[in-house]
Amino acid sequence: MRRSASLPVCLFAAFFLLAASGPAQDEKAAIREAEAALKRGVAAALPYLNRLPPYSAGMMLARAGHYEQAEAFLARALAAAPGDFKVLYNLGVAASFAGHHERAREVLETALRQQPQNVDVFYSLAYVEVALKRKEVALGRLAQAARLAPQRADIQKLLAIVTGDLGAFADSLAAWERYLKLEPNDELARRERGYTAACLGQFEQGAAELEWFLARHPNDEVGQYYLGLVRSEADPAQALAHLDKALAVKPDFVEARAARGSLYYRQGKPEAAVTDLEAVVALRPDNVLNLDKLGQTYLALDRPADAVRILRRAAQLAPDDSRIQLHFGRALAEAGETAESKLAMDRFRQLGPRKKPIVPPGLVEYLSLTPEEQRADYRARVEKAVAKDPSDAAALERYLQLLFEDGKWDQAAATARRLAALLGPSADVNLDLAIATFHAAGAGAALPLMDRVPEAERSGDYYLARAHMLDALGRPQEAIAALNQALGAAPKRPDLYQQAAAFLTKNGELPEALRVLDQAVRSLPQNREILLRKATTLELANETREAVRVLNQIQNRWPEWHAGWVAHGVILATHKRLEEARQALETAVALGARSPEAYYYLADCTLRSAPKRTDAAEAAIRQALKVAPSDPWIRSLARRIEEARRTQRPPSSAEGEPPYLTRLFLEKPPRDW
What we know:
Blueprint: H1 25-38, H2 42-49, H3 54-63, H4 67-80, H5 85-97, H6 101-114, H7 119-131, H8 135-148, H9 153-165, H10 169-182, H11 187-199, H12 203-216, H13 221-231, H14 236-249, H15 254-266, H16 270-283, H17 288-300, H18 304-317, H19 322-334, H20 338-351, H21 363-367, H22 371-388, H23 393-406, H24 409-423, H25 427-441, H26 443-450, H27 460-472, H28 476-489, H29 494-506, H30 510-523, H31 528-540, H32 544-557, H33 562-574, H34 578-590, H35 596-608, H36 614-627, H37 632-647, H38 660-667
Helix pairs in contact: 1-2, 1-3, 3-4, 4-5, 5-6, 6-7, 7-8, 8-9, 9-10, 10-11, 11-12, 11-13, 12-13, 13-14, 14-15, 15-16, 16-17, 17-18, 17-19, 18-19, 19-20, 22-23, 23-24, 24-25, 25-26, 26-27, 27-28, 27-29, 28-29, 29-30, 29-31, 30-31, 31-32, 31-33, 32-33, 33-34, 33-35, 34-35, 35-36, 35-37, ...
């Protein structure tokens, strides 16, 4: 059992960034007053802090360790300057320290869009992802940071910790090696390197490093625990001695107590094991591994009723763990519960042997690739696996997903049929086959395949696909009924609400679309994409005043979110409020908006607002052409800008309105704006 390494604040706390210029003289005096008052507490300092610019007050509170209050002031600063990188970054860091990790992630991702090569942002995002228990995502952030700054010791240290927690021990050991070359005097890192080497099977090398460490730090409970684990196979008596020392230093060290209880059990001493394992389960009642060990110990003590009680809990927590199903089945049999025992054993046989996850070496190297390189590598591996073994169902499922993403519907339908032949009747495979057939051969051929999915297995995705097929056949009322069934099947799925609203709007059912979105807002009040969809749908329904009210609400709550600014700018531009639209769209681009629509409207508003800014309009349209070089409306605007720059005359008018409003508000999700 590996003890997950904690992430000390010192790995992260130094990453607040200060403003480039110092405060003015009168502000310095106000800062001194606020600092003096802050020594008496935040409440005493608030009157003085409120006299300062919000950014200065927020940074003062952050440096003093009052992170929640710092976050509030920095949020005010961001509302006044949404595109300011330092405000964005420091708000993200403060929010993370305040424990508001989702907010921190959103803000730091906005900062990363502004500076996509900023190592501090990658590192800070990794810390946040670890706090959110998304260590695989954190590892990707760290791999990018390490690629940009290979000599940053703090990055190598966090990389070593996260890879070790994920079981990628080869990568973890390599990261510890790199870190110790940069920080050779960090003895705790040598402890971690020793244990990681042992996890890779290098037991003597690992034990030697741990013994060196314990000779210098004999009362380090983690070192004693590690060496106890490493010695548990070769010398159980010595291992127990080390675990005893760890628990003498720290009696509530759960991992060490669990390891000692497990070792007693393996030695055939269940009477000694049960005391430790009962204490561990009392402290960690939802740890499946410890529940399993305690259940087996009760069986060894001829206490089948207790074993059934504990193993039932383990089986409920891990229904797909075949080993626990086996142990649960045995306990039920011992307790005389033969009928239920048979069910558990049938479940065990259905699941098959337990698959131990293996993390191959090179994971960090892979994650350091660009997204395009990763996708190309993934595609090549999937295609190779399918070519090597056409009966590999798992590889075929991955290949089918790639075909869906590429829109290769004929091939997707053929692959789905192969999967159906391999796996037998399956709701997921039948649905994939029907969707591929719909795109390849039409709704008439697809609907009979939909009917193969049993009613009890029809999901929200099923009813959404059915709605599209019925609509294609010119049966809109049946399509709307299917949409309502989709929402009923998955009332917490925001993507279903989004797609349902877009579908209804495209079909001219704006009141019904707004009804669906009102339901979505009630069900998911914290989902900003739902609110944005409501605002854009209100605009399409000619309820501009209400649309702007919702957009203002979005910008007040999430000033760092570029999609809200894009929508606001587009709506203002549509209503000829060109200067306001330009400012909103400039903010959107500063926050990371990169869509051709955003650049098009920014160029158009910049060109037509007063005073005329031909150079700025030209810069914006160049960006639009980079993203969508063949778009006729963008090319037309580029010609008009060139004409205005060359002749110094007012720009000629566009012929009609571009289709971007509908395309942006209906066809593209906000993350792509």
